[in-house]
Amino acid sequence: MNIKNIFTLTLLAGALSACGSDSKTAPAPTVAPIPAPIKPTTPITPPTATVNDLGISAIPESLKSMYTAALKFDRHTKVDTPNGGAINILAQDGITDYQIVRARNILQHYLTDLPASVYGADKSAVANKIAASGSVLLLLNGVDDGTNAASELDGQPLYYGEMQVEGGNWYINQNYEHRDASFEEILHFVHDNGIGVDQNPSFNGALPEYQADIRAAQITALSGKLWAWPASQASWITELTAENSLSQEYLASVIDTYYGLWGAFDSPYGMWGMYIAKTRDDLATKDPAGSAIMDNKFFHPYLTYNARIDGSFVGDFSLRFSTSLSYTNHSQYLKDVTLTGENESNVVVNQLNNNITGNSVVNTVIFSGPSSEYQITRDNDQVTVKDLQDNRDGLNTLTDIEKMRFTDTTMDVPSA
User: Fold this and answer.
1) 11 neighbors 279 (Cβ within 8 angstroms)
2) For 180-193, how does the pLDDT look when each residue is reduced to its tens digit (9 = 90+)?
3) How far is it, in rounded angstroms, from Cα 38 to Cα 21?
């Protein structure tokens, strides 16, 4: 096999910056020394600082002694857990509010119950485990190049340079130099501290049966050369084996493919060219065991959070897959979006019963059929648009939207 067709050295180097302290996406040509983690000496307690409309606050007093201004930490958010605990997210001063909200959204997405699923119908135990462990998510300035002093802290790091935001330039252009590592790193955080990892001295997670399924799929993929098969990955696999991170890294490859993060990548494969399945459609045929651990087990088939579209975005943001729009490999799995900023932007709906919220100016929601094939009703401040054709545009709820565009006409949203 021609390794050039799998990935270039440049892309491999890009992969090196995409992972955190607990797991690594690909082996580094050279490894800078990393100081030993500094662990909290006291339990992390729920914060009490004033919270803004986005759920973001200054660093709470209870956390200031560790996440200091000297280390450039200036904001905090959290995910509350069913047992009254909290999973804390700490951000440095170069991280945008959009990035903070999106990181929290992805964490909440992973922890949102999936009714009638095998392992995810009630995720309380997973969320509670993470909170009880005191584990934190660290949103750090720059990239993972060893220069950020806060990387010495104990926690799962996620860097500015690898955090895309829906509607932002990196997202719209699917810029793999700023590859979206948020799903991977936050998954590692949930996997290590909530789901649990076997082959350690003890199993501290909440879902040993699911981890057994993940482990079996990982073993099948590695032995069958479905994942991390190139010879250039051999030393990385040795490293992952020693630190017991194989199942975490394999699951991250599956998740990235499942949510469309590699559909625009210039390779027939996913995860920097080292995972056999590039798109969700590939999973069932190319990695059946990987497909099985996604199929109504724990993870939702769509993204459950309401995506805040970056205020810089101008144009039609599409939730419907189009081969001419690279970002729709990923956005096709979004269900709910909110336009922000002051640009007259629009949204193309998909089949997922979308909730669309507009911004302060004129916004249009775009549908796939003629107006006669939709039922439009208004209830107070919300308008619902129901597609009378199956498997097309679904049932859409519009808030603060001024116009609707159909294939035959554009009309104003009904007034109250």
Assistant:
1) no
2) 999 999 999 999 99
3) 12
